[in-house]
Every structure is written in structure tokens, then in C-alpha cells.
Amino acid sequence: MTKDLIRAEAQRLGFDAVGFAAATLPAEARARLDRFLAEGMHGTMGWMEARAEQRAHPRALWPEAISIVSLGLSYAPAEDPLANLSRRDRGNISIYARNRDYHDVLKSRLKALARWMVATWPEALVKVFVDTAPVMEKPLAQEAGLGWQGKHTNLVSRQHGSWLFLGEVYTTLSLPADPPGADRCGRCSACLDICPTRAFPEPRRLDARRCISYLTIEHRGPIPEEHRAPMGNRIYGCDDCLAVCPWNKFARAHSEPGFAPRASLDAPRLAELAMLDDAGFRALFTASPVKRIGRDRFVRNVLVAIGNSGDPALRATAQALAEDPDPVVAEAARWAAQRLEAA
Ligand code: B12
Ligand code: SF4
Ligand code: SF4
Fold first, then answer.
1. Active-site position among 16, 80, 104, 131
2. Helix axis angle, 102-120 relative to 2-12, nearest 10°?
3. Of 85, 105, 159, 310, which is least packed with CB atoms within 10 Å of its CB?
4. Any idea which positions bind [4Fe-4S] cluster 1 (predicted)?
5. Residue 271, pLDDT score
6. pLDDT tens digit sequence for 36-72
7. Are strands 92-93 and 234-236 parallel, antiparallel or unpaired?
8. Is 296 annotated as a binding residue?
9. What is the pLDDT of residue 140?
10. The pLDDT of residue 204
11. 13 annotated to a ligand binding site
């Protein structure tokens, strides 16, 4: 059967989860996206609003699409994702960004699968997507049976916990849908309770403007003061709500060499990160997703962590950046120096 062949090939290519859905989403997905946008919870991610129609309706993105193959790649860590949070002289980089950019890893496998599908069924048309396209990947993965959207809004899998990257092959092949994933959160609320910035107004609704992932990666300009202290030493992304999910205990550590943490990014020293210039920043983050945010935004985050470190030895580092040519960096440096002085 066509689906079995595709599933087997996806597994051979290294995907950890495979499911099939029709190229449609339930009406609630659109309604919830509209509410998220209407309440401004996307912050400055204007690109979410610009192509909302295509996000909510796969066929508005590609009218010929009949079915969707939803694919998951595990990045379940062998290490404790929260271990660095208590090392205040170090920066904590989110698990997903400690080595190669997952977009590259996933996209090459998605393309390989798509090429194989076209070679096997020459009448098939295919398009591949991962993350940046106007696609609602989590509701689609739930429709395809990969798991369910947990209360932290991410897709949770019984086998891989919260640690799956998602990607899709849209196709003109007609593939019967798998049963959708059923909600298995029950009365658990661990992910909601641990969130340092209280970013969930209610279960399954995230106010991105409060999320440390948004603040450290997407947000330009100064980080609002109310969120600086709760950020602690998280300098790129945040894993807290993922890491506490009890379903992670079934996840086996991933075996993708590109996702094993680089020694230089595992628990880097704040004092060294703050001193990076553009060239040093680009060299340290070669092929890493961190590179995308640029030196200035990154050093801004590092300075917030320095301000939170309580370490008087880092005060001189902050002071050295108080006149940085980038006004956002300079402001964060002054804030950090003052905070350490008060400490
Ligand atoms: C924008 C975005 C962000 C934003 C906003 C996140 C968000 N939750 O919306 C920010 C920058 C904060 C972010 C952070 C992260 N992200 Co992100 N992000 C995206 C992106 C590009 C779009 C997500 C989206 O459409 N949001 C809009 C909202 C409205 O949609 P939604 O979250 O699906 O919302 C649904 C629920 O709220 C639900 N809902 C609401 N009420 C109710 C009630 C009930 C009863 C039910 C059942 C459902 C329900 O309905 C909505 C629609 O179905 C996707 C890639 C993509 N193209 O899909 C990656 C993606 C979601 N991100 C991902 C990751 C890994 C992360 C981080 C873990 C990174 C990190 N370590 O820092 C964090 C996690 C933060 C969190 N708790 O969500 C992965 C998640 C993989 C997975 N297993 O789910 C994705 C899929 C990328 C990928 N290709 O792998 N992200
Ligand atoms: S990623 Fe961190 S800040 Fe964002 S919702 Fe999860 S716990 Fe909260
Ligand atoms: S931590 Fe609990 S509530 Fe949150 S996604 Fe996991 S099972 Fe659901």
C-alpha cells in the first residue's frame, strides 16, 4: 500500500514519526489563529498575520494539494535540558540550538523523501515545508496522528515526548488519513506552572510576547524590564515547558550527530560571549540557528543574563559595553552594570 511504502522510506531516511492527513484543517484551527492574532499575541511577528489564510488552509497555500505527509525528527537530549540554569556565569542556549540548524537537517531529508515519491509515482506533485512556510505544523501533525497539542501548545508524542521537530510533504497523491492524535495531558499542568514569565493565559494558549523564546529570538529592541529578571541566564530560546513534560520519560535520546551539543555551545561563559564582535559571533555560530539573530540581539540577551548573574566579577564586562554603538546593547549593558552594583 502506498502509505506503507512512504512510511518505510521516511523511516529509512531517519524520520522518527510519520503520519498522513488530508490537506485541510478543522475550522477551530482558523478560529484560534484569528483570536491569537486579534489579541496581538504574535507581537511583532507580522509575517504570521500576512499569510494567515494559507496557514489555516493548506489548499490556499497550494490548491492542488490533496494529502499531507507529516514528519517528525526527534531531538530528545541525552543531557538534562535545565542543568545549566543554575550556572549563573554561563549562558543557557536552548537544546535545539546547540549545534546544527534543524531546518537544514530536516529539509534535506524532506527533499530526499519528496524526490523518492516522485520517482516512485511519476504523476505525483510534491512540495516540502519546514517551520518558516505559512503552515500550521502542530495542528497538522495532530491531524496526522503524530501526537497531540499539549497544554504548552507544542506537539507531544507518546514515543518522543515534547522533542520532535516537524516538517511536511504536501502532495497531489490521495493518501487515506490516519486517526488524529488524542489529548493525553489529563490533569497535568507542569508546563504551565513552570513558565518563568507566565506566558500562558490559559492552557493551550501562549502569549508569545511574554515567552522567553520570542523575547530572545524574535523580538528586536530592548527586552521589556518586567521580563528581564525571569529570563535568568536563558540567552537563546527556552526549554522549561518542554523539559518538564512527563511524556519525555518515554523518549530515547536522539542519534542525530548534527544535534549533539557542540562543546563551545553547551554552557558558554557569559564573559566571553559578551565580548564577541560580528566576525567572532559568526564564527562561533557557524551553521547554528543562533546565527540568524545577529551579534547585537545576541549580546543584548547575554547582558540581561549578566545582569541576572549576581556575579560582581561580571560588572566590568557590562560596563565595557555601556557605550556600544548599538543603542539596545548599550542600554542592556547599563542596566546589567547597575543591577550588579545594587547586588
Ligand atoms: C510562531 C512560532 C513560535 C512563536 C509562537 C509559539 C506558539 N506557540 O505559537 C515563538 C517564538 C514563541 C515560538 C517558540 C517556540 N517554538 Co516555535 N514556532 C512557531 C511557528 C513558526 C508557528 C506556530 C503558530 O502557528 N502559532 C500560532 C498559534 C495560534 O498556533 P498554535 O500554537 O498551533 O495554537 C494552537 C493552540 O493554541 C490550539 N488551541 C488553542 N486553544 C485550544 C483549545 C483546545 C481544547 C485545543 C485542543 C487546542 C487549542 O489551537 C491553535 C491552533 O490549532 C511554528 C512552525 C510552523 N510553521 O507551524 C514553530 C514551532 C511551533 N516551534 C517549535 C519549537 C521547537 C519552539 C520552541 C520549543 C523553541 C525553543 N526551545 O525556544 C519554543 C516553544 C514555546 C511554546 N511553548 O510554544 C516547533 C514545535 C515542534 C513541536 N513538537 O510542536 C515548531 C513546529 C517548528 C518546527 N518545525 O519544528 N515559536
Ligand atoms: S518556552 Fe519558556 S517562556 Fe516560553 S512558554 Fe515555555 S516555559 Fe514559558
Ligand atoms: S507537561 Fe503535562 S500538561 Fe504540559 S504538555 Fe506535558 S502532559 Fe500536557
1. 131
2. 140
3. 310
4. 185, 188, 191, 245
5. 98
6. 999 999 999 999 999 999 999 999 999 999 999 999 9
7. parallel
8. no
9. 98
10. 98
11. no
Against a cut of 0.70, is the pTM above it? yes
CA–CA gap between residue 242 and residue 248 (Å, rounded): 8
pLDDT of 116: 98
- Asked about 131 being catalytic, the answer comes back as yes
Domain boundaries, the chain: 2-77+100-171, 199-342
Q: What are phi and psi of 323, to 5 degrees?
A: -115, 25
Nine-digit cell at 279? 566576525
Radius of gyration for the alpha carbons in the chain, expressed in angstroms and rounded: 21
**Residue spans of the chain under pLDDT 50:** none
The pLDDT of residue 1 is: 87
Buried residues in 182-207 as b, exposed as e (16+ CB within 10 A) = eeebeebebbbeebbbebbeeeeebb
Q: Nearest residue CA, atom 1 of ligand 2?
A: 238
| Ligand 1 pocket test target in 39, 105, 137 with most atoms within 8 Å of CB | 137
pLDDT at residue 158 in the model: 98
**Contact status, residue 110 vs residue 130, Cβ threshold 8 Å:** yes
- 136 Cα–ligand 1 center, Å: 8
CA of 195 to the centre of ligand 2 (A): 5
Say if residue 157 carries a ligand binding annotation: no
Determine the Cα–Cα distance for residues 82 and 251; give it in Å rounded to an integer.
Answer: 16
Ligand 2 center from residue 288 Cα (angstroms): 21
DSSP code for 120 = H
> How far, in Å, CA of 79 to CA of 90, rounded?
16
Q: Give the number of the ligand closest to the Cα of residue 45.
A: 1
- The ligand minimizing its distance to the Cα of 130 is 1
Q: Is 164 in the pocket of ligand 1 (CB under 6 A)?
A: yes
Confirm whether residue 55 is marked as ligand binding. yes
HSE on the CB side for 242, CA within 13 Å? Answer: 26
